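#struct-pred
JK: can someone run the complex with adenosine-5'-triphosphate? inputs below
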Amino acid sequence: MGRHAGGLPALPDGSVLAAARPVGGDRRGDPGRGPAGRGRGRGVRSEEGPVSGAALRVSELEVRYPGGGHAVRGLDLVVAPGETFALAGESGCGKTTLARAVLGLLPPGARCSGSIRVGGVEVVGASRRTLRSMRGIDVGYVPQDPVTAFDPLRRVGHHVAQAWRAHRRTPPPGAVAGLVAEMGIPEAASRLRERPHQWSGGMLQRAAIAAAVAHRPGLVVADEPTSALDADLAGSVLATLRAASRSLLLISHDLALIAEHADRVGVLYGGRLVEVGDAAEVLAAPRHPYTAALVSSVPKPGAGLPKPLPGRPPAPAEAVAGCAFVTRCALAKERCAAEPPPTRDGVACWVVGHG
Ligand SMILES: Nc1ncnc2c1ncn2[C@@H]1O[C@H](COP(=O)(O)OP(=O)(O)OP(=O)(O)O)[C@@H](O)[C@H]1O
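RT: done, structure tokens with the ligand placed:
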């Protein structure tokens, strides 16, 4: 997603995911706890999510790109306060589109309908001014690749300080170094004077996390935040991200990381959620045929190469009358192609759970 913009982890529209609110407090009166190291429970989730007070509530979301393609088709999703909700699915299933829609950053010409409420504030149809004021305050963003997101000519401290300066504020004395130190960077005050090339990818991602959570947004969106990192670093950076975020929408291809770090997972296929549930349970015992295929596509030691799933997902321009997975599903029945399956117990399937 974002690249340089005046030295910031930046967004496609040139704005930054930072805004003016002092560290340690927010406008909803949350008392000023530091952003990192808060306790996190796994007990906040439910199958349907909370009725009110959700960190994120997406209802009947449709996103179409110019040319008529549907990248997201009738999607409902709730992220509860304190929850880490992961989105999984193969390339092109709509994960980044959903993330951009939540951030109010769909490209020009994209059409969005339905509802996206971030901390109760409607994003769909909101003015650019409202969206800019929400970024960093109500929703933070962690980019995929910190090396390309940081301007090589600026000091790392400049990037994190932009969380304030982008909104014409000055960081309180020591706030930037304190925040970065909380993300696990030793000697933060002196190291912040260095340029990005002097930091490792994992350290830069921690700086990006610091910028994203500087104002303690109720929701952080992270689109493949560890894909540019070594496997052993990915886990510890994700643990930092999770601890620093009040609620997290995590997009990842890495099912093992999701099973370890997410409370719930939503599996996307053809722009629709096909299965939602406890992350560890869904990935250990998938029920939707697509989730099962996704899980079995992960290579396992000593098991040889996994067989690729034949066929391909529907293109955005294709009409999908019934289940989007019907053309690749070994269990498909006539009805699957005709009508969209209802979601029961977190699974959208005409066959599984229907006898
Ligand atoms: N700007 C755009 N214009 C037209 N179509 C787009 C645009 N961006 C994405 N798409 C299409 O929308 C669909 C969903 O793309 P998206 O990037 O959201 O998927 P994804 O699951 O994030 O994939 P990946 O894991 O490869 O990033 C794809 O078919 C993609 O080609």
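RT: quick notes.
The chain has one domain: 56-305.
The radius of gyration is 20 Å.
JK: thanks, will look after standup
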